[in-house]
Amino acid sequence: MEAIGVEAKMAHLLTYAIVSLFFSVSSAVVDLIPEHNFVTCVANQSPQYSATISKLVYSPHSPSFSFIFQSSIQNFRFNSTKFHKLQYIITPYSADHVKAAIICSKVHGLQVRIRSGGHDYEGLSYNSYVPFIIIDLVNLNNVRVDSNNGTAWVQAGATVGELYYHVANQSKGHGFPAGVCPSMGAGGHISGGGQGTLMRKFGLAADNVVDAIVITADGNILDRQGMGEDFFWAIRGGGGGNFGVVVEWKINLVPVPPKVTVFNIPRTLEQNATKLIHRWQQIAHKFHEDLFIRIIIFVGKDSKGGKTIQANFNSLFLGTSDQLVPLMAKSFPELGLKPEDCKEISWIQSTIYSNGENPGQPLEVLLDRNHVQKGFFKGKSDFVTEPISETNLEAIWKVMQEGEAGVMVWDPYGGKMCEISESSIPFPHRAGVLHNIQYFSKWQEGGYLAEQRHLKWMNRLYNFMAPFVTKNPRTAYVNYRDLDIGRNIHGIFSEAKIWGEKYFKGNFDQLAHIKGMVDYGNFFKNEQSIAPNFYL
């Protein structure tokens, strides 16, 4: 990747200092800016849309403001407008609207937060401690499928469910490797990598991106050719909200068979769950790449009604049950898979099944952004490179059974994931990774005490797991954002590097260098955004 000369570096540094001073001064007086000034600015930047601008820009005085703000928030921990400095919500219908919002935010000294699906685990796509706007991409949700060439353009405001639905609706033989939650926004999900049930066969969602449309901090609208390969590399897995506003991705679709096979086999400690999990760690990353078996581990009930650990072995196989049963007898006979455990369905139905729902319901459920049980939640993540012993697994189960209930989801790697280099895109968790762990706790009771009970359970389990996961650094998945591993206070490179290397390992320095090239004023920033480095 290209380096920049000394003169260019000094110019970037000087510009950064001037812009930073401007923001610090203008933010202090932002509350004095009349509402019409911002709306007028947006209208002037988009004269062809000036007649409808008032319908796209919402202030706290707008009757629909609270509804729009809360409409796609998944985590109730961050759904109050009382504790932040949100000035406007913009719901663009075009890239020009996004460009206008960016330019006018700079004029008025406002930070920008970009929301596509509202699934940011720490609410950073719609909260800030300084005056800011939300660019809510909900109206940019078009999916255009080219089945002849096996590609699609998906706007960043489309959900993963909408993407799946339109791909399957227009091409039965194609699918796309992305996550299991249909209501996630494609913009943020792909920006962070996008792991899912097809990743052992086809890699991550971001591995299958071939072009994009992005609006920069300077208001330029660029495709892959216009942005250059360094910029294009950074947006595919470098985390959302760092380098610009991606408004559209061009993706390669992947071939899927007419029928796939799924199963979900529960096992408790009485049914040798510990031995099965230990065995799974040794072999799941070596399975045929058509076979994906994840484990969902939680506190359940034993045969006497007491507490126990239950592990659900949840699978997607790209083939028929007649192919799967003998493969399992060879690869994982200990699980004891039987033909009656299997269900043959279409790939598009499997996207509903993998989300824990009945695959026989109408596929239109994938289009429903609100078809999800919202609540309060916290997530964390780890990567594992060595199997955890049975003795240590038993110790982990004891910790899980203390305090509030939560869940661990173990997703297997291997296959295509270990064939792609760590530096192919910013997502670095490749060869040598056995599986990912997501720690997740969700609750419905509001209030500080309820939150603290759940966070205490989560933190105790996470801390207990430290000896069994990656070290130096203890790595994490950026799409399971976790401010506990570090946050920006001053917005400087050395500060961001503390948490950045946990998400991106050796790729972080290059990301920070590219940040300094494409957003030298550090306009796109939040509590866990990449800070520019001008000295690489």
From TrEMBL:
It comes from the Eukaryota. PROSITE patterns: FAD_PCMH (PS51387). GO terms for molecular function: FAD binding; oxidoreductase activity. The keyword Signal applies. GO terms for biological process: cannabinoid biosynthetic process. Residues 81-256 form the FAD-binding PCMH-type domain. Keywords: Disulfide bond, FAD, Flavoprotein, Glycoprotein, Signal. Its cofactor is FAD. Pfam families: BBE (PF08031), FAD_binding_4 (PF01565). InterPro entries: BBE, FAD-bd_PCMH, FAD-bd_PCMH-like_sf, FAD-bd_PCMH_sub1, FAD-bd_PCMH_sub2, Oxid_FAD_bind_N. SUPFAM superfamilies: FAD-binding/transporter-associated domain-like (SSF56176). Belongs to the oxygen-dependent FAD-linked oxidoreductase family. This is FAD-binding PCMH-type domain-containing protein. It comes from Prunus dulcis (Almond).
